[in-house]
Amino acid sequence: MLAVYGSLSLPLKEERSVQNQPSYQDLMAHLGDLLAPCLAQDWPNLAVDRAEGLYVYAPDGRRYLDFISGFGAANLGHNHPWVLAAARAHMERLVHAPIGVLTPESTLRLAYELGQVTPGGADMFFFGNSGGEAVDGALKLARYVTKRRGIIAFLGGFHGRTYGAATVTTSKEKYRHGQGPFVGDVYYARYPYPFRSAAPTPEACAQESLEDIDRLFEHVIAPDDVAAFLFEPVQGEGGYVIPPAGWLRELRALADQHGILLIADEVQTGFGRTGQWFACQTLGVEPDIICLAKSIANGFPLGAIGARRALMQQWGAASHGTTFGGSPVSCAAGLAVLEVIREENLLENARRQGAYLLEQLRQLQAQAPVIGDVRGIGLMLGVEFVQPDSKAPNPEAARRVMQRALEGGMILYPCGHWGQTIRLIPPLNITREQVDEGLAIFRDAILAE
Predict the structure, then answer these.
(1) CATH 3.90.1150.10 domain extents, the chain
(2) In degrees rounded to 5, what are phi and psi of residue 118?
(3) DSSP, residue by residue, 19-46
(4) Is the pLDDT assigned to residue 401 strictly greater than 90?
(5) CB atoms < 10 A from the CB of 309, how many?
């Protein structure tokens, strides 16, 4: 007998054997019958056999440069041997330990080690499984501790797709369509986006955002009802937008003035991506709560919320919880991540290679009218595409460039409200030769426009 999925017939479990299993090629052909559209309808849905370092290998042996680092989850590149060794060793000892019932050393040690590098004096942590979970938990923590109801987030932000995280996500309407009602008492201000602002200077652009907050305080919610500001130090999905210098310091001052907590979503910007351990350090601001995930364990599922002990210890027993959070295997991988970043001097490499890549991209911009803006900090860079002779977004050009780059052996991915910006986030241990390899493919793809 056969179980039928769409037009794909699979043997029932009791009849299955290696001989009658569908091939990988068959499964890929029926991907839309096996995976939910919200998971499967993406780009490029590339079949993959294995990955190592900067490179992903297809089943036919073709090699691709991964310039999105698994959506920023593989800052050390794929399958870093130190991380694999740490995880493998712990899997042979202990795979699952529900925290509170069992307390593995790797989870405690990772909390201690994170406290040595996180900004804002964070020295107490709650471990979950993902960035969305971290954001949800941070919102709960802020409300629980302050006894206030309001959250102010920023337009263009992406914080995840669980209900709390989706509530504060505004990078694209599609992430919210058909999902409401959302969590209440969440309000929005503009995130300073100099390239897209009508303000005459970056400083004036930053002021627009601060004035939005003032209007919220005057017309919508009193500041003493606001629990937290939630922000990305550099917007990721929103377009790799770097705020003007000083905006975060002004936001910090405003938070201090009104007793509002500052929550930094460092899910994509953390663990060396901007050339320091965290983007808050690169940009000179101290958050009260920090959300971590993605590259915290270089591909193993893990997320974390960090805060000062005086704040976090107010989050009483049973007010939040998890079954799989703080997996001892993922935490062992996380410890290896911190060790590799230090031992391989990856913060310096991110700054050095990022500066070179930014310079080369700006030279390319001078040759390509379709590029409206190039911006970057460390190895977190965005190239925004426009209609020639205007600043109108040009997502079609971005898609064509990505397709040509893929054909040339390079994986890229868009961001920005219209999908008009291509992000370049290669692993932090990328070499100059690999940067040039990627640049050559990217340059050819753009100059073909």
Answers:
(1) 24-78+346-447
(2) -75, 145
(3) TTSPPHHHHHHTHHHHS-HHHHS-S---
(4) yes
(5) 13
386 close to 319: Cβ distance less than 8 angstroms = no
> In the structure encoding, which two tokens stand for residue 437, read together?
């390899």
Q: Parallel, antiparallel, or unpaired: how do β-strands 150-155 and 186-190 relate?
A: parallel
Specify the CATH number of the domain 24-78+346-447: 3.90.1150.10
Q: Are 298 and 75 in contact (CB under 8 A)?
A: yes
Q: How many CB atoms lie within 10 A of CB 48?
A: 15
Confidence of residue 12 (pLDDT cuts 50, 70, 90): low
| Residue 143 vs residues 99, 122, 180, 256, 448: alpha-carbon distances, Å | 23, 18, 21, 16, 52
Write down the pLDDT at residue 6.
Answer: 46
82-343: CATH class? alpha beta
End-to-end CA distance of the chain: 52
Residue 13 has pLDDT above 90, yes or no: no
| Closest listed residue to residue 135, CA positions, set 9, 230, 5 | 230
| Residue 130 zone, left/alpha/beta (φ > 0; ψ -120 to 50; rest) | beta
Which part of the chain has CATH 3.40.640.10? 82-343
CA angle 238, 375, 262 (to 5 degrees): 50
pLDDT beyond 60 at 408 = yes
Mean pLDDT of all residues in 149-167: 96
- pLDDT at 1 (0 to 100): 40
Q: What is the pLDDT of residue 249?
A: 96
Q: From CA 173, how far away is CA 356, in angstroms rounded? A: 35
Cis preceding linkage at 44, omega within 30 = yes
Burial of 225 (0-12, 13-18, 19+ CB in 10 A): middle
Of 89, 106, 85, 88, the C-alpha closest to 97 is: 106
How do 303-307 and 371-377 pair as beta strands?
A: unpaired
Q: Does 2 score more than 50 pLDDT?
A: no
Read off the tokens for 7. Answer: 């037009």
